[in-house]
Amino acid sequence: MTEPIVVHLLGLLSAARRRTLVVALLWALPALCVVSFAVWQSGSMVMLGAALAIVIACAVLARRRLKPLDRHWLVRQLNARIPAADDSLDLLLFAPEQSGPLVRLQQQRLRERLREAPLPDLRPAYPWSRLALAWLSAAIACGLLLWQPWHGHSLPVVANEAGDGAAGIARGSFEARLRIEPPPYTGLRASDDTSPEVRLPEGSRLQWTLRFGSQPTAVSLQFHDGSSLVLQRKAEGWIGERRVEASTLYRVVAVGAGIDEQRLYRLDVIPDRAPEIVVRAPQQTLNELSPDQSQWSLSFEARDDYGLAMAELSISLAQGSGEQIEVREQKRVLEGSGGARERRYQQTLDLQALGFAQGDDLIVRLSVGDNREPEPNVSRSASFILRWPAEASEQGEGLQGVAQKTMPAYFRSQRQIIIDTEALIAQKPGLDESEFEKRADAIGFDQKMLRLRYGQFLGEESESPGHEEGNEAEHEDHAQARRSAGSRADEVMREFGHTHDIAEAATLLDDQTKQLLRRALAAMWAAEGQLRMGQLQAALPHEHEALEAIKQVQQSTRIYLARMGLDLPAVDPARRLTGDRTGLSDPQPIALGDDVADAAPLVETWRALDSGALPEIRALREWLDAHPQPGDRAIALLRSADELRRSPACVECRERFKAQLWPLLPMQRAALRARSAPDAEAQAFGRGLRGARP
User: Fold this and answer.
1) Of 241, 251, 238, whose CA–CA distance to 166 is shortest?
2) Are residues 638 and 689 both part of a single domain?
């Protein structure tokens, strides 16, 4: 069910589309009236065909005017006009139902802010003056036709003299026709647009056809990255084409045309997103083999914006324990069922045929690619593990035997977390920020579950009982492990002591083993925190530290660690109080304000905006070229600067420019001020403290 606030926002879009359609009809009706009057006067089939052509042109014009007005246009308009939206209204209109906690928190904030803030009117204004002129011209034309009846003569055609600009275009302006040819793999048809600013799929070939009111001698397009495109003069206008891979800004430079050559036009590139994978079965990443289970059923769903390609299931079988672990891998190509953009993959694994035996781990992961050229986007699911439960030790062996038999499986899980982290680091350049953070958070969740299970060996309780993946069988196994210490020890504790919530008494592991387990848990905790924040490089050392500690627990029944402390070099008494600094070096001084000096163009731009003046855009552009920004931040900033240059009195443009510039400004460091000179009274007080007479 659609939320009321979303319905209200979509209502603004519908109102804007209706107004745009009405304005387009008001523009087309004068010409249609003139041609219809001519048809009525002459009865010519040629004029009737012209009337039908005008009707078709009206329909095409209305469609082109309505095409840009989609939800993306709505989000851009609302983000620009509602500062409280934090440029995140797309979370209300495009975020999937199953979103992360941060997305849901921001959605709740947006709902509360939009209920309080007045929503802007996005409907375009009626161009009454130009419409009146068009209708007046139509009335004059109809009067002329009535005064001089139609006798089958041809209508006069306005000739374009040599050296003049295109007919019907005012001097100092130009008309543009952009043809967009998306890459063949997208399956999208080529389209035309009459605006110099368009949205186009990534990798599209874009062709410009420009016609000027005053014929120029040379025309080129200057892009904000420093490249240029020289247009060639042909019969239909000035033509040039280019393949567009990323969003960009460009200027039209026409020598002798008298146009505004500093105005920036924006090309918004729609990136080809990587396929999205949804896992339907299994429901959790770590699964234990149930009794009499001979098969493992897997179910995945994948969807892509243009089309899915090959899907591959990676199957890894880990056998052995300690350092004798053998991993066998195989891959299976999955066909799937469904359409080109959304498919469902189902696979049933025969455990006996795979050689799955007691103490083994079966790990699967799905990889799905799309049809992007030249390199496809590939998405990989999380790793899902099917584990054969280890046998519980006999009652007389004590709990340490249980720990030794179950830990090899956990050891492989920690190794898998390291593998997943290193794989995600390698894939980071090809992922967008939201997908990267989502997958990093998933690895962090796996690290958390592993840490909680290791914590059970030290008697720790689960920190999130409502979300833990364990079940009643796991708790029963843990309780059975506690009882395996021996009935005699339990009787003594029940008679003479109380062990509730005492972590040290939760197991019978020796002290050295407990220290190693605590070290592993601390490393896992640190790794989990870095993974949750998306800092994978910082998480890897903690993951390896946890792996090393677990490895030592597995290989030794009792470990003795040497005492280690701070080992400082011996002091040389002969150098004391001599001032000899041989072998010593001063620390590097801290350069205060270096970041501020480096960002001087940003600071000067902010000061100009704050004072109401026009900032110097060239220095800002050079700074942005030297400091690449993520996403389209630089393009949006330069576009706002261009809007302010063309409309210096626009308060909204200035505020939008400042809002986009603010995140780039450096943080000011605390400045040290010189102590002011004391006055006469303070000087007398100081002399009194020193015992001197006034």
Assistant:
1) 238
2) yes
- Looking up tokens 């874009």 gives 206
Give the orientation angle of helix 433-455 with respect to helix 511-532, to 10 degrees: 160
Q: How many alpha carbons fall within 13 Å on the CB side of residue 316?
A: 16
Q: Which of 339, 366, 387 is the last residue before a domain boundary?
A: 387
pTM as predicted: 0.46
Q: How confident is the model at residue 173 (pLDDT cuts 50, 70, 90)?
A: confident
For the sheet with 276-281, list strands across it.
276-281, 295-303, 342-350, 337-338
Check whether 230 has a pLDDT greater than 70.
Answer: yes
For residues 66 and 14, give the distance between their C-alpha atoms in angstroms, rounded to a whole number.
Answer: 10
Q: Provide the CATH number for the domain around residue 188.
A: 2.60.40
Q: Which residue's entry shows tokens 């109102």? A: 15
User: Considering 337, 358, 387, which residue would you say is the last residue of a domain?
Assistant: 387
Residue 53 has pLDDT above 70, yes or no: yes
Mean pLDDT, rounded, for 119-141: 79
Quick one: pLDDT band at residue 482, thresholds 50, 70, 90? very low
pLDDT for residue 556 is more than 60: no
Burial class (CB in 10 A: 0-12, 13-18, 19+), 574: exposed
Per-residue b or e along 423-434, where b marks 16 or more CB atoms closer than 10 Å to that residue's CB: bbeebbeebeee
Residue that is written with structure tokens 């899915």 in the block: 308
Instruction: Give burial (CB, 10 Å; 0-12/13-18/19+) of 521.
Output: buried
Whether residue 461 is found in the same domain as residue 528: yes
pLDDT tier at 261, thresholds 50, 70, 90: confident
Find out whether 218 and 200 touch, Cβ atoms under 8 Å. no
